[in-house]
Structure formats: C-alpha cells, structure tokens
Amino acid sequence: MEGTPLWAWAGFLAFIAAMMALDLGVFHRKAHIVGFREAGAWTVAWITLALLFCLGLWRFSPPAIARDRSLEFLTAYIVELSLSMDNLFVFLVIFRYFRLPELQYHRVLIWGIIGAVVLRGPMILGGMWLVHLFEWVLYVFGAVLIVTAVRLLVARADGVDPGRNWLVRVAGIFLPVTKKYVGGAFLARRPGGGWAMTPLLVVLMVVSTTDVVFAVDSIPAGFGVTRDGFVLFTSNMLAVMGLRSMFFLLAGMLHRFRFLKPGLAAALGFIGVKMVAEPWVEVPIAVSLGVVLAIIAGSVLLSALLAPRAPGQGGTGPRAPR
Known about the structure:
Layout: H1 6-27, H2 36-60, H3 63-97, H4 105-133, H5 137-154, H6 166-174, E1 187-189, E2 195-197, H7 199-223, H8 229-241, H9 243-250, H10 260-276, H11 285-305
Antiparallel strand pairs: 1-2
C-alpha cells in the first residue's frame, strides 16, 4: 500500500497548517472560555472531516486496495481517538496541578497540538523506516501494546505528578519561572533584565512531553492496524487535531467514563495479540474494526448505564454543591 503521490502528502500537510492558522488567527484570536456548544460544533466538524477523508481514500485509491485502505484508516482513527479520550483526563490533572486559568486552556491545547504534530510526524516516519528495514519490529510493537494494556488496567490516574517532568527541570536551569501567570505570554521580562518563563510555558512543556509518552503507545497501535504510512500518518494527525475540542466537550464528564480504561486496555490487548500472532492467524481488517468498535462502544455504554449517582440524586444524601 505504498506509493502515495507526493501531492497527496503536501496537500494534507497544507490542510493541517491552514486549519491551525485559521484556529489561531480567526476563530480564537482572542482568549475566551470555550463553551459546551462551541466545543460540540468543533468536535462534530473534525469527525466529519475525518469521515470525508476516509470516503476520499475509498474513492481515489486504486480499486484493488480502496476498501481495505479506507477501513484501515477508520480503524486507526477510532483507536487513536479513543486513546485520546483517556489522555484528556491527564491533561485536566496537569491544568489543575498548575492552577492554569480556564481562559488559557485553549491556548495551551492548541500549541500543544502543534507540538504533537511536529513531534509525532518524525516518530511515525521513524517507525515506518524501522519496519521497512526490520519487519520483526512489528512483534516488538505488539509486545509493547500488550504491556500497555496491562499497565492501563493497574495504573492509577491520580498517580500522575506533573511537577516531576524532566523537561521542566532542565529548562529551569537556564531560565527562572515567574511566580504568576502573565496573561497569555509564555515568556516575560524580569525587573532586573533578562527573560523568565511564565507558568504557562511550563504547562505547555509538560503537556507536550506527556503527549510524546502517549504517542509511544498509540503509534504502535496504528502499526497494528495498517502498514500504509499515509493512512497511519493522516489518521493519527486528524485524531490529534480534534483533541482540543474533545477536551472542552468531555472535561466535565471524564470521571463518568468508568469503564473506558478497561475498554482501551482490551482494545490495545487485542491489537497487540493480533500483531504477535499475525504469522499464524490473519485477522481481516473488517473484523478488527468490528472488534475495536464493539469494545470501545461497549465500555462507553456500560459507563453510561452504570454511572455512579451524584450526591443528592435520589435517597436522602446531601445535595451536591454548585
């Protein structure tokens, strides 16, 4: 499934750059708190764009591979989007840890996404190069996914400590950090001369390095779905681009998805086992898509049906505070 023309790569990268410029320069030129309705509209827009792109792959790919290529994109996109949903909780922990003003949430997220696009691209291309040279690397990726699945089941969300980020420690050697936020600025002049980092830049560095850690799990999952570099790259980037709007849409409801983490563990475990067992058992891409969809949708549905009651809902418990 190689041989994607150069104009397709250039066109997709130009589209990503244009959407970032539009977001920063037009829709969110002034800092504001993103509401539920705005976040919902942007989430629907990004998912629609991804589905249209999937349709385009089916329409313009060679007939012999068009069906499989579009199904691979859809599967990889769903896996990455689902992993992003779990990662949003970590971002929320980071924001609360550093007491980031809600007005600056969007600024950190959009610049964090730009960093993710810049950093993930070389990681995906590097993975493609390794797989091309050493096919056995795919089995390593499969083992990584199985280990990640086990780690998801036993890890504690509240065990995240953003203050121990290595990049923040290294950066602090060269630049001091101001005690307070300075609007939307990442750097500020010191009274005695020179520059200092604002806490906003510290938050951005933590979010960016955390995303790289996430990519170590999600990119091997993409290789478990497809070997097509263009499909892998585009599905990953479109999922990441929709991450900002999903954060504002789901931030207040993340705690309700009790069974999402076990669902993600099951999906990653399935893909990992599929990669390791590929020499003996070939799983059609349509079956993989069905299994991943069933696991993720089932975990979300189960979370909704078995959601814990808030204090004051039914019974005689105290009313939940505003």
